[in-house]
Amino acid sequence: MTPGPQRPSTVAALAAQHGRPEAYAYLDEDTKRNVRRAILKALAIPGWQVPFASREMPVARGWGSGGLQVTLSLVGPNDVVKVIDQGDDHSSNAVGMRKLISESAGCAETTSTTAATIIQSRHRIPELDLRADQLLVLQVPHPEPLRRVVPADVAALVHHAERDYTPAWLDLYDAEARIGGPRTAADHPVLVDGARLMSPSPIPRYDVLRLNRRPHPILLGAGRRARLTALPPYIDVAPLAFEDSPLDPEHAGAPCWRCGSTQTYRVLAERRWCCSDIDACRVRLEATTP
Amino acid sequence: MTTNAVADYNDRAPLVPPEPVVSVRRLAHRFGSGCDRCIDLTGEAAGTNRCCACGSVVAVYDASFDIGPHEVLGVVGESGSGKTTLLRCLHLDLTPDSGSISVGGQAINRSTVVMVHQNALAAGLYPRLAAESNVAERLLGGGARHFGEIHSRAAELLNELGLQPERHTDALMTFSGGMQQRVQLARALVDPPQVLLLDEPTTGLDPSVQADLLDVMQRVTEALGSASVVVSHDLAAVRVLASRIVVLHHGRIVEEGIAEQVLEDPQHPYTQLLVSSRLT
Amino acid sequence: MYASMHENDALCAARALAQRATAGPGGHADTSMLEEQVCAEAGLWETTAARRALDQSRGDAAHAVSMLRVWAATQPHVQALPVSPDDVAVVRRLSSAYPRIPGGQWLGLAPELISRQLNWTDDDGPAADRPELTADVTAATADAPTRAATPRVRDLIDIAATVPSPADGAGDDPARTVLTPPYSRANRLAMLARGETGALVALAALILGRRQEAVMVELTVGVAAIRISHPRTGLPCAAAEVPVTEVEVVLDADVDGRPGLATGWGASLGRVERRAISLALLDGAMQADGELREPLTLDEQTVVAATDGPATNGFVEHLRLPHYASFASYLANVAGRTAS
What we know:
The complex is a heterotrimer.
Chain A: H1 11-17, H2 29-44, E1 50-51, H3 65-74, E2 80-85, H4 92-105, E3 108-109, E4 118-122, E5 135-139, H5 153-162, H6 166-179, E6 190-192, E7 196-198, H7 205-208, E8 218-222, E9 227-231, E10 237-239, E11 266-269, E12 272-275, H8 278-288
Parallel strand pairs in A: 2-3, 2-4, 4-5, 5-8
Antiparallel strand pairs in A: 1-9, 6-7, 6-10, 8-9, 11-12
Helix pairs in contact in A: 2-3
Chain B: H1 3-12, E1 22-31, H2 38-41, E2 57-67, E3 72-76, H3 83-90, E4 98-103, E5 106-107, E6 113-116, H4 131-141, H5 147-160, H6 177-190, E7 195-199, H7 207-224, E8 227-231, H8 235-241, E9 244-249, E10 252-258, H9 259-264, H10 269-277
Parallel strand pairs in B: 3-8, 3-9, 6-7, 7-8
Antiparallel strand pairs in B: 1-2, 1-4, 4-5, 9-10
Chain C: H1 9-22, H2 32-42, H3 47-56, H4 61-74, E1 88-94, H5 185-193, H6 197-210, E2 214-229, E3 236-255, E4 258-269, H7 273-288, H8 300-306, H9 309-317, H10 324-339
Antiparallel strand pairs in C: 1-2, 2-3, 3-4
Helix pairs in contact in C: 2-3, 2-4, 3-4, 5-7, 6-7, 6-9
C-alpha cells in the first residue's frame, strides 16, 4: 500500500497503510466507539442497562457475542486474556473465543486467573479473588431482571426509571410464602447501590454473594439483547432478599475429589463432586501437594 | 317507617354531613361529539340517554352529592342509567367533561381511592399468585421489607375476612368470586383509602354466599372510616350496606335520601318502579 | 402477474416462463443440511429425492417439502418394525447438564464448529474449511456404540421431583391418518416432528425467554437401522439406515407446589439439531405448567423478537453450551426446598 501524502484520518486507514487491512481486535472503530461509550455510561450509572449497537459476530447470538464485543473493544496488545465457561478454560466455546481475541488483538492468552488482565466468563466468577488491575467481563443471556414478572420491555423500563421494583419483591414474597425461599437458582437479581435492580447473569448464588464491593470493575454484555451493564469498583451489590431471609449459597454433597476443598462451588461429574473453577482447583491442589 | 328507625337514623348520621369527605358537584359526561340540544333531548322527560339529533349519549348529567366519613352511599338504577360512568369518574378511569370531584377539600387523585371490582383481574390482582401475596403487594409497595412482619399482617387481614389459613397460599384463581372479593377487601384494609368504591358486589354470586359477603363488607366499611360508594342494581344489597341512596335514571339523579326512606317510601315514579319490580 | 385461472394463452405463456427459469445454471453449493431439513419437514428420508426437489423448485425449500410429500403419497407403504435401541448407532452425544457423563461426551460432527466467517478464498476448494463430512453418514457408524449400550443422562437426575409424563401408546402416522385434537402426546410429537423448522425455533425461543431454567440433558445423533418383515420369510431385515437426532431437555416446573422439573423430548429425522432441540422444548413446556400456564400475548416486542432469525436460532442452539454450573444451582435449590 502506498502511503498517501496526507496523514491517515482513521486508525483503520493507518493500519491498512501498514499492511493490516482487518480491524484491530476484529471490531471496526465505529463499533468500538459505540461499545466504549456504552461502557462509560454503564459505569456512571451502575446497574442500569445501556443499549448498544450489538454487531453480528462470528459467535452466534446467545453464545456470548455481547461479552465478546466488550472484550474486543477494550483489549490491547499488552493484555493477557483468559476465557472460561462454567469455570473451565477448555470448554470448546471458550477456547474458540480466546483464540479469536488473542489472534485478532495480537495479545497473549492464558488459563491462569492470576496472570490474566482481562477475564471473560460465562456463568461463573473466578474463585481466586481478582485484583484492582484486572477486568472481569461476564456473558449475559437475559439482562432484564424483571423479565419474568414484567415481560414488556417498555413497562420494565418505567419500573427501572421510577425504581419501583414491587413486582420483583412480590415474586420473591410469593415464592417465600409458598416454597420457603426464592425460585431463582442462578441469576438471582441484585440491588446495585441499594437502588437499581440488575441481573448478574446466570452465576450461582455462591457467586452472587461475592459481588459486593470488589476492587475491580465488572462489565456485563448481552449481545442478543444488545444491552450492557457495569459495576464500578467498590460498589455495593446485594441480592434481592427480605431482611429476615438472607440468600443461602448452594451446598454440595461432598468435598472436591481433586483438591479436597469444602468451600468452593462444586458440581457433580459422573457422580463425583469437583470444583467448577478448574484453575482455582489446580492452584489449591498445588498449594497442598508438597 | 317507624319512629324508632328515624331515631336510629338520627343517631347514625345527619342527612347532610357538615364536613363531607367526598364532594361531587355538577358532574357531567357525554360519549360522542355532542350538540347544543343534547341536554334538552335527553334525561327523564325525553326518556332516553341518547340525543336524537347527534346520537351522543349523555351518560351522566348534573350529578351532585356529598358523602361523609363512615357513610356508604348507594347508587342505584337500571343498566344504562349512568352508574358505571359515575363510578369510573370516581375511580379516575374517566375524566368527566365537566364538574368536580373533591376528596377532603382537594381534587381527587388515584392514591386516595380503592375500588373493589366484580372480578379480581380487573382490579389488577394476580390470579396466579397466592391470596396472601395479593394482600402483601400493598405492603411491599409501601416499602415493607421484613417477610415475617408482612406475612403476619397479611394473614391477620385474610383471617378477619374469613379466609381459612390453610388456603392463604393457594393461587387467587382457585378461589370463588366472593372469596376473591374478600381478598380485594383485605387489600383495601392494608392502607385504608379515603374513598372506597364497591362495584356490583353481589352480581354473579350465589345467593347463599351473598349474605355473608354483605356482612363482611358492612364490617369493613365501618372499620375503614372511609367514605364509600356502592353501585349495584341489587337493591337488597344496597339496603344492607348503604346509609343513603341516590337513584339514577337516564343519567340524572332523580331521587336522593336516607336508604330506608327511599326504598320503603319512594317518591319518584321511577324509584317506585324500581322498588316494586324488586319485591321478593 | 397473470390473474387468469382459466386455460388460455396467458397461462401457457406463464408455464413456458417457469420452465425456462428452472433450466438455469444454479451453482454447486453443498446443500446437505438443507436436504436433511427438507426430508425432516416432509417426513420422508431420501436425500437424493430432496436434492432433486430442491433443484426442480430452484432452491425453494417449502416447495421442495411439498414435492416430497406428494411423491411419498404415491409410494407403496410398508409397515416398519419399531426401532430397537440396539439398532441405533450413536455418532454424536452431548449433555449440557453435566461436565462428564457415563459413556462420554462426543463432539462428532459438530455443526457449531463450522466457522461463521465467510471465506472468499477458493484455492483450497470449498471442502477445506469444513470438517470431514460424508453425505453417507453410515460410514461413521462402524465402531459406534449403540443407544442400548449407552446409559441415558436423565437417569442421573434423581434429586428433583419430575412432572409425570402421560403414558400413551405408539401413536399414529400423520402421513396416513387424519389426527384431530385433543392429541395424545405421541400424536402431538408426531405432528410436530414434521413441523416447519423456522416455526418450531420461533416458538421454542419464546419458551426459552420465559422460563426460569432450561437445560439440555442429552442430545444424541444416531443412525437407526429400520427393519421390516421380510415379505416371504417374515424375518426382520434391515431396509434403511436413517440418521435421527434425539434431544431431551428439562424445564423448571412446579410439582405438587414444590419446585421441580418437567422433561421434554423431541426427535427429528436428519441432523438439523435445532429442530430436535425446539421439539423437546415445546414438549417440555406443554407438560410443565398445567393449569397455571401463562397466556402468550402477541405484542410488538414478542413478534419482533420471535421473527429475528439469527437471535432465535442462536438462542435455541445455545442450549448445546455447557450449563452445568447453573443447573447444579437449580438442583441444589430444589433439593433444599424439598427437604424443608
